Amino acid sequence: MIEAPLDLQSSLSIPADHLQACTSQNLPVSGNAAGNTKNVFDLQGENLPPARLPAGFTARGVVALIFSCLSAFLGLAVIIWYGASEIESNKVSPSKGDITTMMRAETVG
Fold it and tell me: Which of 49, 11, 16, 46 is nearest to 31 (CA)?
């Protein structure tokens, strides 16, 4: 809330390039939101916001929700399947330089 708008208007100014950008696009640079300088309470011709979104879900929204849920459940199923699978150990055959082979050779020999 501005307590003294006239004091603020006297100390601030709009840069010239801002005014030039508005006038080049045929936008009003004085008056109210509609550019009306004679009757500031008349807002005929002001820019209006876009229309409101429809209430509820649209068909596209329902389809997107269903496919999102299906892909989430599929992803969870894959994670559960992967986590529940047995871990296969790599069976390494003892080689010539393996420590267990060396220890067996010492005990036998």
Answer: 46
